[in-house]
Amino acid sequence: MDNIRFILVVTFAMLLYMLYDAWQIDYGPKREISVAQQMPQDLKEDLPTATGGEPQPESRAEAKPIVTEVTESGAIISVTTDVLALEIDPKGGTIRNLDLLKYPREKENTAVEWVWNLFGFSKPEKDLSPIRLFDSNPERLFLAQSGLIAAEGSANAPTHHTVFNFEKDQYLLGDDQDTITVPLTWTDNQGLTVTKTLTFKRGSYTIGVNQTVSNDSTQPWTGRQYKQLLRVPYKEEAGHTFIRTYAGGVVYTEENKYQKVSFDDMASDKLNVKTTGGWSAMIQHYFAAAWIPPKDQENTFYTKDLKDWRYVIGSYSPAFTVEPNSDMEFSAQLFAGPKIQPMMEEIAKGLELTVDYAWLTIIAKPIYWLLNQIHGFVGNWGLSIIGVTLFIKLLFFKLSQTSFRSMAKMRKIQPRLKELQERFADDRQRFNKEMMDMYKREKVNPLGGCLPILVQIPVFISLYWVLVETVELRQAPFALWMQDLSAQDPFFILPILMGITMKIQQSLNPAPIDPLQAKIMKMFPIVFTVFFLFFPAGLVLYWVVNNTLSIIQQWYITKNLEDAK
To answer: How far apart, in whole angstroms, are the C-alpha atoms of residue 431 and residue 425?
Structure first.
């Protein structure tokens, strides 16, 4: 029984290691892919086909994709708003090279630069360019595509391989504007005209995509809209060695709710799910892109595993018929931006779940809400972390008090246990009996210091995931040299403080009776300090504050028990 605390600490350390190891296996970098491998071999294979969920026969004809001739447009349309800078390829109206202007890749840190200059070192180069979400570079290929699939017997319709006509090649959101509208048109010169309109709004990461079919021919036209995301496997940004989060496909349906669809899943089992509403997305750490069809429309969600490490996730609508001399509009929304939960909740049901807390969501979401509420008052994410730590400490105050009282009592009888151990060194059974008798006489519960800690572990892990997944903490400053809570401490001051507080807290606990265990326990502050050197500063800040509060509480309880002798 005296070894239970040692076992608990070792188990916790092993849990951390296994968690990190699991990240590496599941979400770590995959096999390197050469540029040559990634270049598309068949540009028509990425359309919705039977392997990705063929539309079932509806109305008068069996639906099948009809591809118009693929040509090169040569021109590119650029669009710049206050939060986005992107390109639209007239070939299909595909959105590519989308930059998030409010989110630079790296952040200047004047404190670090001052130290570098003080010691005469050259300043490290910073990449201040914005995060690029959609990308036409074959090594980081990520595109948002949309188009129409004509039913058999109907006139051809434009897919994302079809070149559209456009009015101008540059759009800039002016100070007096709230909206930009980019129209693209196509006609078969036989009465069928399609106008694809992309709408951008000030301060918004949501792009409206409407496709209007005008049928001035003498025959009805039947077809459906599709929208999809195409990308190669995502490579984690450098600088987050110990942070591995899920990157891959996601679908949300009313039946199955939030469901991950990894690249391996796309390769092994093609998705083919029909549902009303929902959305499909590709997500990565901090950012996401999602196609959101009308919430009252039935859609079929599909995935495809293409050649050369390209993967597709998307959806298509039911078949609709446009009668002669009439129009019909197909609509959808494309979200491309940071995973800010309050913003995403307003865009589509369940979209905030792309901030993935896994099975701890039920605990993590209230913690995020509290973190956000505190930030609304103090305006500093570092202070918000401290506030959440204080709240959690108060929430578990009684449990912690029980744990620390038990540890203090154990510490008080430690010398007597040592005497028992020496007296019955050759009789382990007798020693255990005498030890248990002493626990009963002194009313000491050897598990009392461990069980309250076990209860709190899910909350601690949930808070960890909140701090890891919250994009608002990315490059968020705290104070002095800590100008990015999502990056490691540049001077390792916080990890060292964490090690010191852990050592102080360890000194307040009863030492293991076994000398070998005692030596191993003394190494834990050093081991954890090294481990935390690579953790984001926000996480280490939480542990420093939590340890400090625990030291104060434990010291007070221990002192009162010692004074009561």
So the answer is: 8
Three-class DSSP labels, 98-124: EEEEEEECCCCCHHHHHHHHHCCCCCC
The span from the CA of 363 to the CA of 384, in Å, is 18
Position of tokens 């999602």? 290
Rg (CA), the chain: 30
* Domains within the chain, CATH numbers bracketed: 77-356 (2.70.98.90), 367-564 (no CATH)
Three-state DSSP state, 505: helix
Q: At what angle do helices 414-423 and 428-442 cross, to 10 degrees?
A: 160
Placement of tokens 């790296």 in the chain: 106
pLDDT per residue of the chain (565 residues) written in tens, 0 to 9: 444 454 445 555 555 555 555 444 444 444 443 333 333 334 457 777 533 334 433 333 333 333 333 344 458 999 999 999 999 999 999 999 999 999 988 776 665 565 556 555 666 677 788 999 999 998 889 999 999 988 888 888 899 999 999 988 899 998 888 999 999 999 988 889 999 999 999 999 999 999 999 998 888 999 999 999 999 988 765 545 456 678 889 999 888 888 898 888 888 888 888 889 899 999 998 999 999 999 888 899 999 888 778 899 999 998 899 999 999 999 999 999 999 999 999 999 989 999 888 778 888 889 899 999 999 899 899 899 999 888 888 887 777 666 666 666 666 666 676 676 667 667 677 767 766 777 677 666 665 555 556 666 787 788 888 888 889 888 888 877 778 787 777 788 888 888 888 888 777 665 555 566 666 767 777 877 887 887 888 888 888 888 888 788 777 766 665 555 5
Give the torsion sign (CA, 132, 262, 332, 252).
Answer: negative
CA distance 312 to 259: 16
The answer to whether 544 and 528 have CB atoms below 8 angstroms apart is no
Residues in Cβ contact with 477 at an 8 Å cutoff, skipping those fewer than 6 apart: 380, 382, 483, 484, 485
Residue type at position 407: M
d(CA 224, CA 222): 7
CA–chain centroid gap for 42, Å, is: 32
Separation between Cα atoms, residue 172 and residue 176, nearest integer Å? 11
Structure tokens at 80: 């710049």
Secondary structure of residue 446 in the 3-state scheme: coil
Tokens found for residue 164: 């559209």
Distance CA 193, CA 221 (A): 11
Residue 69: DSSP 8-state: P
C-alpha to C-alpha distance for 415 and 404, rounded to whole angstroms: 18
Distance CA 75, CA 69 (A): 17
- The region that residue 248 occupies, defined by phi over 0 for left and psi between -120 and 50 for alpha, beta otherwise, is left
